[in-house]
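Fold this sequence, please.
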Amino acid sequence: MTANTFLAALANIYPPDRLLRRPAQLLPYESDALTAFRARPLAVVLPERAEEVIETVRLCAREGVPFVARGSGTSLSGGSLPVEGGVVIAMNRMNRILRLDPQERVAVVEPGVVNLDVSKAAAPYGLYYAPDPSSQPICTIGGNVAFNSGGAHCLKYGMTSNHVLGLKAVLADGEVIEIGGESLEHVGPDLVGLFVGHEGLFGVVLEITLRLLPKVEAYRTVLAAYRSLEEAGHAVGLVVASGLLPGAMEIMDRLAIEAAEAAVQAGYPQDAAALLIVELEGEEPQVEAEFEQLLEVIRSSGAYEVRVAQTDEERARIWKGRKGAFSAVGRLSPDYVVQDGVVPRAKLGEALAEIERLSNAYGLRVANVFHAGDGNLHPLILYDGREPGALEKAEELAGEILEMCIRLGGSITGEHGVGMEKRRFLPAMFSPEDVETMRRLRRAMDPHELANRGKMFP
């Protein structure tokens, strides 16, 4: 089948306004949030019903045409980059919350539902959806499932995989499957756990059954300022060693503070080398008891200034600065690379010192923003893409940071996925047998590697 014949077949599924094929229409889909990678698809389709997605995948399977499912395009690893000559299935119009059951505490949603909208819909029933990535106001649940997204509060509540109970999906060969259900207790292998984090390599998710939690009764949010990044990293270890389990622990360094303050005026101390945000949450008596213990630990950790949010507005402002830090760094540099790696908490200080050494060696500024509670680093490497070789230099520095994470016993990704960016590091972290096992799993679901072809594997 020629490209024109294939497009004609797509036109039998989609009306003209939902089948994009002109260069100007395709341009916004040529990359995701990792703009260093670009590719032009043959077409972009905008399904509104699950049946349209199934028909599209089955057409691609018959004709051997690769496809990529895409939500809001917030992937920072090139995970939703199009395949040249393939089809992008843009899921944003499949954005309905199909059912919300406050008694069972579940929500059944389509993949194009925005993360934060689930909590907004559940709020009247005193419930919310816990995973909260920084892109929460725009990222979609389908993308969260593909990359097993986390967020600031994953320390206490876990990742997306801990909150997905069931899935309906169309595999790359066109077979429609339903796995899991609405119960927390499953019999047999954890197929939902296998599917969450598949990076689009198995097929396209059509419906997701999410676990909802009761809204938190009380919060205590503490902002501590330090004279050095190492001191802030050491404080994380002290908090964990004390036996406390905060809802979130986040660190921002001087550059990230500067950017966030310029963008949202969060009121952060401007002379701090690092900020530690610790948030306790739960039932009020427990939170108040833990709060006194937390203050003792923070004051003994070397913090020169400690602030406690007294109102919901003050808490929101603290988090607005942290969650807006990635985009705010654009005020400091025309371009930057966002890296994502993990180190054991005990190695945080060593990792941060090494990042500072690498920053000086490469002559590139690095802003550090990370989920300190689980050692998930997000260094942002600043560069000017107008300078010849600047991107390559930044990517080389990013690669050294990933190699450091592996060396310290960590991981090449915490929540951004492998995608395009980290494919070459997969064999450095896993044995050849492990990588081949992953490939066999992928081919069992997608023998012709049509779904998100070219991602993850080197």
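The first helix runs from residue 3 to 11. The chain is about 35% helix and 20% strand.
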